[in-house]
């Protein structure tokens, strides 16, 4: 069995209209993506809460999947009548053959080496170094597969700075990857916090997969639960937060309260141009330092006064 993909060039004004029109013509699925993806002209759409950003790419492509036996000429004619673009549609057709989609998806995720002793290994791979600290983690619904630079920056910092017996809070835990890593690196107690119940569920599942369990390890959507569980005064030796710049700024008093005096904080999810403002905010409580950078993302660290 095979399918046909119709790919039409679009812009911000007609991409959504094309998408709707293709669905009305019986498309099995429709996708809008950047026509310049994976090139130097790729347009990023991410933004911070409260800050405006482009809602769609200026030069987009609308990709629609159809069964192989459709009348593509009729579909194109109907789409033209529905959208009424200026000029002819710029399109191309591609044929997709049936494949082992599970195997294909898995092939995109290989083990990731974070350091000499720390690896991230999907469940379908053998650990390249069985004697290393291997974080067993599959791609899922929660952020944190280990492939993003912000996650790798945090993991590398934990590997270099966490001391055996430390108490750690992972604020915005996502998949729980940083919390799992902290426990495997020798933390005595780790708490993961996320406002998304799905992330908490994913973290709990990943903790079980990595043989991490209570009472040293727990996840919650309520940061106040940490203060009831961690002593003294519910404070940690290390707080790590891989979120985004604006939430980090808004959460600064909460995160600062979670760190004991002389304890450490590590902040990621920060673009280079945002680092100065985040650093300035946290200097109220911490002696702040700029850490490593990777692909335009910055890790900020500090010790609490």
From TrEMBL:
<feature type="binding site">
    <location>
        <position position="151"/>
    </location>
    <ligand>
        <name>S-adenosyl-L-methionine</name>
    </ligand>
</feature>
<keyword id="KW-0949">S-adenosyl-L-methionine</keyword>
<dbReference type="InterPro" id="IPR029063">
    <property type="entry name" value="SAM-dependent_MTases_sf"/>
</dbReference>
<dbReference type="GO" id="GO:0032259">
    <property type="term" value="P:methylation"/>
</dbReference>
<dbReference type="InterPro" id="IPR050078">
    <property type="entry name" value="Ribosomal_L11_MeTrfase_PrmA"/>
</dbReference>
<feature type="binding site">
    <location>
        <position position="242"/>
    </location>
    <ligand>
        <name>S-adenosyl-L-methionine</name>
    </ligand>
</feature>
<comment type="function">
    <text>Methylates ribosomal protein L11.</text>
</comment>
<feature type="binding site">
    <location>
        <position position="172"/>
    </location>
    <ligand>
        <name>S-adenosyl-L-methionine</name>
    </ligand>
</feature>
<dbReference type="Pfam" id="PF06325">
    <property type="entry name" value="PrmA"/>
</dbReference>
<dbReference type="GO" id="GO:0005829">
    <property type="term" value="C:cytosol"/>
</dbReference>
<comment type="similarity">
    <text>Belongs to the methyltransferase superfamily. PrmA family.</text>
</comment>
<keyword id="KW-0689">Ribosomal protein</keyword>
<dbReference type="InterPro" id="IPR004498">
    <property type="entry name" value="Ribosomal_PrmA_MeTrfase"/>
</dbReference>
<dbReference type="GO" id="GO:0005840">
    <property type="term" value="C:ribosome"/>
</dbReference>
<keyword id="KW-0808">Transferase</keyword>
<dbReference type="GO" id="GO:0016279">
    <property type="term" value="F:protein-lysine N-methyltransferase activity"/>
</dbReference>
<keyword id="KW-0489">Methyltransferase</keyword>
<keyword id="KW-0963">Cytoplasm</keyword>
<feature type="binding site">
    <location>
        <position position="194"/>
    </location>
    <ligand>
        <name>S-adenosyl-L-methionine</name>
    </ligand>
</feature>
<keyword id="KW-0687">Ribonucleoprotein</keyword>
<protein>
    <recommendedName>
        <fullName>Ribosomal protein L11 methyltransferase</fullName>
        <ecNumber>2.1.1.-</ecNumber>
    </recommendedName>
</protein>
């Amino acid at each position: 069995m095979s399918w046909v993909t119709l790919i039409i060039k679009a812009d911000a004004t007609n991409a959504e209209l094309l998408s709707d029109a293709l669905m009305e013509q019986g498309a099995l699925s429709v996708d809008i993506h950047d026509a310049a993806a994976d090139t130097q002209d790729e347009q990023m759409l991410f933004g911070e809460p409260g800050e405006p950003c482009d809602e769609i790419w200026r030069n987009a492509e609308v990709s629609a999947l159809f069964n192989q036996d459709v009348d593509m000429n009729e579909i194109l004619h109907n789409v033209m009548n529905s959208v009424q673009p200026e000029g002819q549609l710029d399109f191309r057709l591609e044929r997709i053959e049936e494949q082992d989609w599970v195997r294909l998806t898995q092939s995109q995720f290989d083990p990731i080496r974070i350091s000499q002793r720390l690896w991230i290994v999907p469940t379908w791979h053998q650990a390249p170094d069985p004697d290393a600290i291997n974080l067993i983690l599959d791609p899922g619904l929660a952020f944190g597969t280990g492939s993003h630079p912000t996650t790798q920056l945090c993991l590398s910092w934990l590997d270099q700075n966490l001391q055996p017996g430390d108490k750690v809070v992972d604020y915005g835990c996502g998949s729980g990857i940083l919390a799992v890593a902290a426990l495997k690196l020798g933390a005595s107690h780790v708490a993961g916090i996320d406002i998304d119940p799905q992330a908490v569920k994913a973290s709990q599942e990943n903790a079980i997969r990595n043989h991490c369990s209570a009472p040293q390890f727990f996840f919650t959507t309520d940061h106040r639960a940490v203060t009831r569980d961690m002593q003294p005064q519910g404070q940690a030796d290390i707080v790590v937060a891989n979120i985004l710049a604006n939430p980090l700024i808004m959460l600064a008093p909460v995160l600062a309260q979670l760190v004991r005096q002389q304890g450490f904080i590590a902040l990621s999810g920060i673009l280079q141009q945002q680092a100065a403002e985040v650093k300035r905010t946290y200097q109220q409580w911490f002696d702040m330092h700029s850490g490593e950078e990777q692909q335009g993302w910055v890790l900020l660290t500090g010790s609490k006064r």
